[in-house]
From TrEMBL, chains A, B:
<dbReference type="InterPro" id="IPR015421">
    <property type="entry name" value="PyrdxlP-dep_Trfase_major"/>
</dbReference>
<dbReference type="InterPro" id="IPR036390">
    <property type="entry name" value="WH_DNA-bd_sf"/>
</dbReference>
<keyword id="KW-0804">Transcription</keyword>
<dbReference type="InterPro" id="IPR015424">
    <property type="entry name" value="PyrdxlP-dep_Trfase"/>
</dbReference>
<keyword id="KW-0032">Aminotransferase</keyword>
<dbReference type="InterPro" id="IPR015422">
    <property type="entry name" value="PyrdxlP-dep_Trfase_small"/>
</dbReference>
<dbReference type="Pfam" id="PF00155">
    <property type="entry name" value="Aminotran_1_2"/>
</dbReference>
<keyword id="KW-0808">Transferase</keyword>
<dbReference type="Pfam" id="PF00392">
    <property type="entry name" value="GntR"/>
</dbReference>
<dbReference type="GO" id="GO:0003677">
    <property type="term" value="F:DNA binding"/>
</dbReference>
<dbReference type="GO" id="GO:0030170">
    <property type="term" value="F:pyridoxal phosphate binding"/>
</dbReference>
<comment type="similarity">
    <text>In the C-terminal section; belongs to the class-I pyridoxal-phosphate-dependent aminotransferase family.</text>
</comment>
<dbReference type="InterPro" id="IPR051446">
    <property type="entry name" value="HTH_trans_reg/aminotransferase"/>
</dbReference>
<dbReference type="GO" id="GO:0003700">
    <property type="term" value="F:DNA-binding transcription factor activity"/>
</dbReference>
<dbReference type="InterPro" id="IPR004839">
    <property type="entry name" value="Aminotransferase_I/II_large"/>
</dbReference>
<feature type="domain" description="HTH gntR-type">
    <location>
        <begin position="12"/>
        <end position="80"/>
    </location>
</feature>
<keyword id="KW-0663">Pyridoxal phosphate</keyword>
Length: 487, 487
């Protein structure tokens, strides 16, 4: 019998409180290696919380290496991989730092980290960074080399906080291909998408403010918004888009500081919305006077040729902010994203960029400019379009062929890397199902982390970004088998 | 007669309110090109504020290009350099974004930006980035080239949020040279110093919390702290250090969340504190249980050979966080700094880094590692030590020879790039004196921006980082002349 007490008034989510306490028990020796934890049902009853909450806590503990699954659906305490460091962490805090931590840190202290190492021997459908084998390393090396030779120290000094001007000009031209008429003055380069989301949120919100997001949505955007102390309200996704009736109903109740949306190749579902949906979304934002933040993180991955233009392309009232990134098509490790915003905001974002960073790296920005300017980017885009067109076709064919229709539905993306599985099983069984998938050698992203509030069903996100053709088919076969035999 | 109204209860500093209103008048045509503004004395009387406040406002307006000095110490409205963009900014805000801005942005909206273009033909003592002519561009190009060739896509994908491990290991070894015994586990790479200050402040403070800094201090740290909503209390600098009696008296009144200090080559004064001062500072922090954040931004610039070790080297209770950067010795444009923190904090900082950035750029981090690992860094360090040893000796000799002792005192740094001038003139005359310096072809950093609260006297910071020998001597001669003839 383990003793856990829950504070329902705490800022800390319930499942995190459970995680914290069980972890403390393990670390202090109150729970020993090999001890079996109570079933989720039993612990939920004892503590007085929903069973899903306990599941989520167990999933976190599993991910952190504190527990493992045993026969009969139970979990038992396991030996940590890295006890020395863990021990050091406990012993070494001579000062008592725990009493000094900010609310901002506490709000993310239990968030699952995404950079978990790839597990050997698994078909890993989690990573959303492009396949290394498709990256134009040699062309980029030459671009980098040439930039240092020709521009020298000038790109190695502090740069313009808004970013390297020729790259902003080039991005303005690239944006025109997507119907967005903009100029370098309206563009601010960021350290990838995440930095763009932070800057925009910090420009337009104070802690405690409300923002609307799709539910599910990009998990790291949720984490960022928690970090900034925002109240995040999820607007549910239909099979085709954000539910705009629900959005309007919510707007009548409260006006958020912004609406964050991914109309194209939505993360995690892969859904792209229709032109008429985009028009209606824009009209709603205009009517309620709410800024719309459009995340076009995979805008350039329209390899099936269907190209609905971004909402930003229709933004006559200039109340949209568009976020882009190179990370899903070129090199994530360059950390280059961008914001397109009305000039009055772009100047303010530039100032915030300077206050927080002084500037991005002119060197990497100049190297990417040169790479694009010399035509390598367009060549590269065509090449990865060919590769992923084929991979996505294969993946969708495998989903149609193998996935049991009764137990699981999948989305049919028109580009990008993501397929979203909605199972017939309740959320409470997501962690269990996930462990079975791992057991059969497949890693996917459990769906619960993408929701602002818990959904009913267990979901999984598949990213094909990092997988080859044969792995894709084999992986989906295994997923199908696990789901088929799950009950 | 211009009409300005002041809200003394506003979060907006008084001088910024004056700046805003005069700028609006100019932009709306209420004040026309060539019109002479009231004297600072007169406007101060009319508005009911201190004369220094009006001076500061006029200085801001001058820096932004809205006014210019005319004979008799008056200022008049001038034509803006970039009216089109300025106009666009006003006309184009169709949405009314001004009503949507956050407190965080408002707190920095009027802060002077530092990246102002170098003014042609001036001897510019403002920039704190190393002389481009001394930067080892070609060696770095080869390191970058080799890294892309040997590591390929692996350094072009997302990296560890804590930073590229070999570079962290190398920094741990480098820290040992300064008496800091640490390991890669305790190091988190940042996007330069500024990002390090932000992460540490956000880990340890909530908006509204109090922090102590030296007064004067690094201006962009002040800006960052304002941005984070912190209450900043300045502890005055003596000619040798932070005034520790004043620190203790302040600590008895209120306990800040952290103390931010630059014991070595303090910015802006160039002062390095003694060993006994460091010991006493540490003992005070220990006694009051307050975290100390030590900014060692120029630690590696000890070219006169005198090397007091960082306070962090004595940190047995592990209540110090040390901040370092490559920006003052290698390439600022790589944006690489680092935090050394007790491992329990380092893990938390790593998590925050991931939430805000996902990771830094493994590519630039790996290139710097290779550059250092192959011995180029040590060679480069010796080379710039030689150059700046000579430049600083020349600068100090010129100060001794030319500066009028009655009117101005200067610090005698034991390394780094900075010399600090304390004039006999009151703060109110700083802007005027600064304009005279510009008039004689010398740009320096006016001192007022480095203070948390207004000082009595007019100060100026000279950085020799970007200047050659002959310019240094000539620049200091001109400064001496202007000060001599100022009254």
């Amino acid at each position: 019998m383990i003793l856990i007490t829950i504070d329902t008034k705490s800022r800390h989510p319930l499942f995190e409180q459970i995680v914290d306490q069980i972890r403390s028990l393990i670390e202090s020796g109150g729970l020993k290696e090999g001890e079996v934890l109570p079933s989720t049902r039993k612990l939920a009853e004892n503590v007085g919380v929903n069973r899903a909450t306990v599941y989520r806590a167990y999933e976190e503990l599993w991910a952190a290496g504190y527990i493992e699954a045993v026969a009969g659906g139970y979990s038992r305490v396991r030996k940590r991989i890295d006890p020395v460091k863990q021990q050091a962490e406990i012993v070494v805090d001579r000062f008592g730092w725990e009493g000094h931590l900010s609310d901002a840190f506490m709000s993310i202290s239990q968030t699952r980290l995404f950079s978990s190492a790839q597990l050997d021997g698994l078909i890993d459908f989690r990573s959303l960074s492009p396949d290394s084998d498709l990256l134009p390393v040699e062309d980029f090396r030459r671009s980098m080399n040439a930039v240092i030779q020709t521009e020298g120290a000038s790109v190695l000094q502090y740069g313009d906080p808004a970013g390297y001007l020729p790259l902003r000009e080039l991005l303005a031209r690239q944006m025109k291909q997507h119907g967005i008429h903009t100029s370098a003055d309206e563009i601010v380069l960021t350290n990838g998408m995440q930095n763009g989301i932070e800057l925009v949120c910090r420009l337009l919100t104070n802690p405690g403010d409300c923002v609307f997001v799709e539910s599910p949505t990009y998990a790291s955007a949720l984490t960022m918004m928690n970090y900034l102390g925002l109240k995040v309200q999820g607007i549910s996704m239909t099979s085709a888009s954000m539910n705009l009736d629900e959005l309007e109903a919510s707007l009548r109740k409260q006006k958020p500081k912004l609406i964050y949306s991914m109309p194209t190749f939505h993360n995690p579902t892969g859904i792209s919305t229709s032109q008429s949906h985009r028009e209606r979304l824009l009209r709603i934002c205009e009517r309620y006077g709410v800024p719309l933040v459009e995340d076009g993180f995979e805008e350039e991955m329209k390899y099936f040729g269907k190209a609905v233009l971004p909402v930003k392309s229709m933004d006559r009232k200039q109340q949209l902010i568009y976020l882009g990134t190179f990370s899903k098509i070129l090199f994530p490790g360059l950390r280059i994203g961008w914001i397109v915003a009305p000039v009055t905001l772009a100047e303010k974002l530039r100032r915030m960029k300077e206050v927080t960073d002084l500037s991005g790296s002119p060197l990497t920005q100049a190297a990417v400019f040169r790479f694009c300017d010399q035509g390598f980017y367009e060549l590269h885009k065509k090449r990865i379009h060919r590769a992923y067109r084929k991979r996505m076709q294969l993946a969708l064919a495998a989903c149609r062929e193998f996935l049991p229709q009764q137990q699981v539905q999948f989305t049919r993306p028109e580009g990008g890397y993501l397929i979203w599985l909605t199972t017939c099983f309740p959320l409470e069984r997501e962690a269990e199902l996930n462990q079975k998938l791992i057991g059969t050698g497949v890693a996917v992203s459990p769906g619960s982390r993408f929701f602002a509030a818990d959904p009913e069903k267990a979901h999984f996100r598949l990213s094909i970004a990092h997988r080859k053709e044969d792995e894709i088919v084999e992986g989906i076969k295994r997923i199908a088998e696990v789901i088929q035999n799950f009950n």
